[in-house]
Specification:
Blueprint lengths: L1 E2 L2 H15 L3 E5 L15 H5 L4 E3 L4 H14 L2 E5 L10 H7 L3 H4 L9 E6 L14 H5 L5 E3 L4 H13 L4 E6 L25 E2 L12 E4 L4 E5 L2 H13 L3 E5 L2 E3 L3 H11 L2 E8 L4 H13 L8 E5 L9 H4 L3 H13 L1
Parallel strand pairs: 2-3, 2-4, 4-5, 5-7, 6-7, 10-11, 10-13, 13-14
Antiparallel strand pairs: 1-8, 6-12, 9-11
Helix pairs in contact: 1-7, 3-4, 8-12, 9-10
């Protein structure tokens, strides 16, 4: 089986989908000849031509608006917003148009678009290249939201998203593009070529949207995370020597509540980790659901570990970024409660 980085896995997913279905089109800023700022679309224009992989003007609302029109016509656009931080001009199109077409048309029309966007920090990008806006989409009925943590999942989930009849927000943690970053920024990054989840089939496969994965089994405490924070949580549990069960959500909307409830019912404790700002982050929704469904099994209050309630600080990135130390302290806190 081939070993791929997450960039290569995402590219492979688009390649496989474009080969299988002529209605799949890829477009966005610099995605054609240049191959994208992270090279995620490199080679697709040369292989499929300029009518199926093409560059757009610098207009996020135009990119998404065009994708919606194409989808209503019968195409399957997979578009790229160059950084998740740039999606705000397109928010109206996404939330008021794409998310509502099925409802407004009583099912006569769907909107099979995928909006890919590199998300999160850890690359010294500062406040306009490091944001994690996933909670802005999980609040919107009609959207699906995916955040993969590894190349194998990225390819399978992206193919599933492209084949889905409804709009999917596909957030790619750019700190994971080349390796499974565990939060120890002072250490060399292990490449995906040396990680089991870097093994990715060449052909077509899908991973069900809405199904979480238990990355580490344990009986003392449940850690719920997604994206880069999955690897941080695994490192924190290892560093702290705590028998933690780590759940990789993969899909935020729809959410695999059954896997979370089953784990917390077993462990009696829960820590939720994400790198987006704390207040109104997606972790708050997870905490609320755990409290509603697992209250009589809890042995301690549920604890969140997240980014600060500030713009992403370039000069203090590693203090803002939830690392193994912060997560480890949270694990110790719930174990001592």
């Amino acid at each position: 089986m081939a070993r791929m980085t997450m960039i290569e896995a995402v590219r492979s997913a688009m390649d496989v989908s474009m080969a299988r279905d002529d209605n799949v089109v890829v477009f966005g800023e610099d995605v054609g000849y240049f191959g994208g700022v992270f090279r995620s679309t490199q080679g697709l224009q040369a292989k499929y031509g300029r009518t199926r992989c093409f560059d757009t003007p610098i207009s996020e609302s135009g990119i998404v608006g065009t994708a919606i029109g194409m989808a209503a016509y019968g195409l399957k656009p997979c578009v790229e917003i160059q950084f998740a931080d740039y999606m705000y001009p397109a928010y109206d199109q996404l939330t008021q148009e794409a998310a509502r077409i099925r409802y407004r048309s009583n099912g006569d029309f769907t909107c099979p678009i995928v909006v890919r966007m590199p998300t999160g920090g850890g690359i010294f990008g500062g406040q306009t290249h490091s944001q994690s806006p996933e909670a802005l989409f999980t609040h919107v009925c009609g959207l699906k939201v995916i955040v993969p943590s590894n190349p194998y999942d990225a390819k399978g989930l992206l193919i599933a998203a492209i084949e889905d009849p409804d709009p999917v927000m596909f957030l790619e943690p750019k700190r994971l593009y080349n390796g499974p970053f565990d939060g120890h920024h002072e250490r060399p990054v292990t490449p995906w070529s040396k990680h089991d989840l870097g093994e990715v089939p060449d052909g077509h496969y899908t991973i069900p949207i809405g199904k979480a994965e238990v990355r580490r089994t344990g009986s003392a405490v449940t850690v719920v995370a997604y994206g880069t924070m999955v690897h941080v949580a695994l490192a924190a549990a290892e560093d702290a020597g705590i028998d933690a069960e780590v759940i990789d959500l993969r899909s935020l909307l729809p959410l695999d509540l059954d896997t979370i409830v089953k784990s917390v019912t077993k462990t009696g404790r829960c820590v939720v980790v994400h790198e987006a700002t704390l207040t109104s982050g997606f972790g708050a929704e997870v905490v609320s659901l755990v409290q509603e469904h697992c209250f009589y099994h809890l042995e301690a209050p549920v604890v969140r570990v997240a980014g600060w309630d500030t713009p992403y600080p370039h000069a203090q990135e590693w203090d803002y970024f939830p690392g193994p130390g912060r997560v480890g302290r949270a694990l110790a806190e719930v174990m001592e409660a």
